[in-house]
Specification:
This protein is α/β, with parallel strands linked by helices and 276 residues long. It has a single domain, classed as NADP-dependent oxidoreductase domain (TIM Barrel). The protein contains 10 helices and 10 strands. The protein starts with 7 loop residues before the first strand and ends in a 17-residue tail after the last helix.
């Protein structure tokens, strides 16, 4: 059972990944993202999730260096964007990300979306980056079971992580089961649905029972389901609130009630049908 912000999931290659991380999507390069990361590190977070698309990798690197926390204690994720997919272009994009971050390696490098006709060549590049030790782990993002099965036909290294939209309105049980069976760690982006779910009466009832907020209940549901979670915020009090999920436990009844909120409803794009 996950009982501390310092607890980590163990990926299939032995790399340890924090259960809770800070997402920095749409956090502005410069002071906004640097300040948010400082708040998070002060609150005990040790995982930061960025991407080329977010245009803030440079500031993520600055914040990590300025923190004074040893590099090996902070788990850094970034991703290759769709327009850079393909073998050579992914290798070049990765180097560009590394240069912006000013790091010797990243802890996790992901394919951001399953671009048809390209993600297999992209994966080949990720395997090469991994073999060179420039990424401690490699994985994918927004891959459905069909994409994973297709990728497995050519992969010589199995993805360690699959980062997807996942929240009580989109519980992704089939995908979670598949990933568990194949030792792929599932990770949730937008776990709080941009706050849209926080007024849900079922969540409020559970939150009242545990003297917690509905956001804390959802994030606790994530980690108790065996899912790494990366809520995005630049607000200090919210960043701290999101970290305060390790001193209580949801009952089996609570977990089932939250699972029951599923509507297979996406807030973001559909991995089977996107045009970017």
């Amino acid at each position: 059972m996950v009982k501390s912000i310092h607890d980590r999931a163990v990926l299939h290659n032995g790399v340890k990944m924090p259960w809770l991380g800070l997402g920095v999507y749409k956090a502005e390069e410069g002071q906004e993202v640097e300040q948010a990361i400082q708040y998070a590190l002060d609150a005990g977070y040790r995982s930061i999730d960025t991407a080329k698309l977010y245009e803030n990798e440079r500031s993520v690197g600055v914040a990590i260096r300025d923190s004074g926390i040893p590099r090996e204690e902070i788990f850094v994720t970034t991703k290759v964007w769709n327009t850079d997919q393909g073998y050579e272009s992914t290798l070049a994009a990765f180097q560009e990300s590394l240069n912006k971050l000013e790091l010797d390696y990243v802890d996790l490098y992901l394919i951001h979306w399953p671009v048809a006709g390209k993600y297999k060549d992209t994966w080949r590049a990720l395997e090469e980056i991994y073999r060179q030790g420039k990424a401690k782990a490699i994985g994918v993002s927004n891959f459905n079971v069909s994409h994973l099965e297709d990728l497995m036909t050519v992969a010589t290294i199995k993805p360690m992580v699959n980062q997807v939209e996942l929240h009580p309105r989109l519980t992704q049980k089939e995908l979670l089961s598949y990933c568990k069976d194949n030792a792929i760690q599932l990770e949730a982006w937008r776990p709080l649905v941009k706050g849209e779910i926080l007024q849900e009466p079922v969540l409020q009832k559970i939150a009242d029972k545990h003297d917690k907020t509905t956001a804390q209940v959802v994030l606790r549901w994530n980690v108790q389901s065996g899912i790494v979670t990366i809520p995005k915020s630049v607000n200090e009090s919210r960043i701290r609130e999101n970290a305060d999920i390790f001193d209580f436990e949801l009952s089996a009844e609570d977990m089932l009630a939250i699972d029951g909120l599923n509507e297979n409803k996406r807030n973001g794009a559909d991995p089977d049908n996107f045009d970017f």
